[in-house]
């Protein structure tokens, strides 16, 4: 009896001592569930918060301004950084830094790694209307080119037209499912979009698949060679994984272009296409 009582009071003293000195979480509001903390990109430390054991002190090692975070391709998470409200925990996607203000010189490697047939066009690594600001989206096009041939639109996509200098897309997709890597820089493929900060030329990879596209049809993909459509899906999946582009940001040009109705491409169902990306 006596010894248990003594132990208990010693324990109390230790706890009181600990509480009254330093061992406290940096903010009461940062005492949150460990699962919530890790979802925000923070690290939990036990023993600094009152309450159940899963409530721990959450801190972040990547506190920064929300704009700086988004420029790095990260997602800002409130509540676990000290300082003003614009300073938040920056959760960077799966360790892969997103491209910022750069040429996309890894396009060929990304597609090849996905097991696709890739033909690199001479000079592609330096071709473009300047660098890409970022990669936030992927736009799906068809060329509306000739009705026969593997990739007869190559020259136009690379060099442009009288009214629009090339390159007109980073990537081409032939009727055989072969990918043509045309430019690593910014390309004139999007025009005015529903949100240029996501879908504009500076932030979007353009893919021009060979197809006449006429008459235009918004259902299925039955008029497309299966080998080409399957390759389209596989290639876009690989690009999404490499650049962290969510499926909701894979749009058909007809969906992204404004005013509505300005573009009809691609002439297959984008709902079906996005479903195939999952
Ligand atoms: C465009 O997208 C950005 C980033 O998601 C967003 O902050 C902005 O509000 C959007 N603009 C419009 C007009 O929807
Ligand atoms: C769509 O594009 C394909 C590929 O060029 C073409 O064969 C087809 O005729 C077009 N039309 C429709 C209705 O899908
Ligand atoms: Zn288009």
From TrEMBL:
Gene Ontology biological process: peptidoglycan catabolic process
Pfam short name (any one): Amidase_2
UniProt-listed InterPro entries: Amidase/PGRP_sf (IPR036505), Amidase_domain (IPR002502)
CDD domains documented for this protein: PGRP
Keywords, in A-Z order: Signal
Leader sequence segment: 1-18
Xref: Gene3D superfamilies: Peptidoglycan recognition protein-like
GO MF term set: N-acetylmuramoyl-L-alanine amidase activity
Highest rank taxon of the organism: Eukaryota
Residues covered by the N-acetylmuramoyl-L-alanine amidase domain: 123-267
Protein name (database record): N-acetylmuramoyl-L-alanine amidase domain-containing protein
């Amino acid at each position: 009896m006596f010894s248990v009582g003594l132990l208990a009071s010693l324990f109390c003293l230790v706890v009181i001592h600990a509480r009254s000195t330093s061992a406290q979480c940096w903010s009461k509001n940062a005492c949150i569930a460990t699962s919530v903390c890790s979802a925000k990109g923070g690290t939990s430390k036990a023993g600094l918060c009152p309450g159940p054991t899963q409530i721990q002190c959450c801190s972040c090692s990547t506190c920064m301004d929300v704009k700086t975070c988004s420029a790095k391709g990260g997602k800002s998470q409130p509540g676990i950084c000290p300082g003003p409200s614009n300073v938040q925990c920056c959760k960077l996607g799966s360790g892969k830094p997103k491209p910022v203000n750069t040429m996309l010189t890894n396009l060929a490697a990304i597609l090849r790694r996905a097991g696709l047939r890739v033909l690199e066009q001479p000079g592609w690594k330096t071709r473009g209307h300047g660098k890409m600001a970022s990669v936030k989206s992927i736009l799906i096009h068809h060329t509306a080119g000739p009705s026969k041939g593997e990739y007869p639109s190559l020259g136009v996509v690379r060099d442009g037209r009288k009214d629009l200098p090339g390159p007109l897309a980073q990537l081409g997709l032939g009727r055989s499912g072969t990918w043509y890597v045309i430019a690593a820089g910014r390309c004139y493929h999007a025009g005015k979009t529903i949100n240029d900060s996501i879908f504009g030329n500076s932030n979007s990879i353009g893919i021009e698949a060979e197809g006449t596209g006429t008459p235009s049809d918004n259902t299925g993909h039955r008029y497309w060679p299966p080998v080409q459509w399957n390759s389209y899906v596989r290639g876009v999946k690989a690009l999404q994984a490499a650049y962290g582009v969510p499926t909701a940001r894979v749009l058909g040009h007809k969906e992204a272009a404004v005013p509505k109705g300005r573009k009809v491409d691609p002439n297959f169902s984008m709902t079906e296409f996005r479903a195939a990306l999952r």
